[in-house]
Amino acid sequence: MTIASSVIFVHHRDAASEIERRMTAEGHKVAMLNEQLVTKLYTAAKGERNVALEEMARLQGEAEKARHDLQPRHPKGVQEQAIGAARDLATIKSRRAASTYEPSPVIN
């Protein structure tokens, strides 16, 4: 058994279709490549690329949202100031409770 391959060039698509039909009828394995098929393959590949880019953009958006959700709600400085103020307030309340301190009256 001999395996051979050939490339046949024609000017018109209908001539290529006719040759493909005859050779297939004779039992040959035939593949026809023409501009319409190339355009169809290119369009499909471009569509798959667009779908992949859209999926990447969606995943990037989800990652940004997750990163944002994991960040503290307030800047670090504000949190430290709030903790310090709460600590100061607790200290003042505990000193007042422990002593008989009374503020002096306001003198005019």
Q: How are the elements arranged and paired?
A:
Blueprint: H1 13-25, H2 35-70, H3 76-98
Biased composition (Basic and acidic residues): 62-72
Region (Disordered): 62-81
Word description of this protein:
Residues 62-72 have a biased composition (Basic and acidic residues). Residues 62-81 are annotated as: Disordered. This protein has 108 residues and is mostly helical. The protein has a domain at 35-97. The protein is 67% helix and 0% strand. The chain is built from three helices and no strands. The chain has helices at 13-25, 35-70, 76-98. The longest helix has 36 residues, at 35-70. The N and C termini lie far apart (122 Å). The relative contact order is 0.04.
Name some characteristics of this structure.
about 110 residues
Q: Rounded to an integer, what's the Rg over CA atoms?
A: 40 Å
State which percent range the strand residues make up: under 5%
Overall pLDDT, averaged?
A: 79
DSSP summary: helix tally:
3
Number of strands: 0
Structural class, from secondary structure content?
mainly alpha
- The residue ranges in which pLDDT falls below 50 over 5 or more consecutive positions are none
Distance from N terminus to C terminus (CA atoms, Å) equals: 122 Å
Outline type: rod-shaped
Instruction: Give the ordered list of helices and strands.
Output: HHH
Helix content: 55-70%
Largest sheet: none
Biased composition (Basic and acidic residues): 62-72
Region (Disordered): 62-81
In a few lines, what is going on in this structure?
Residues 62-81 are annotated as: Disordered. This protein is an all-alpha fold and 108 residues long. The chain has helices at 13-25, 35-70, 76-98.
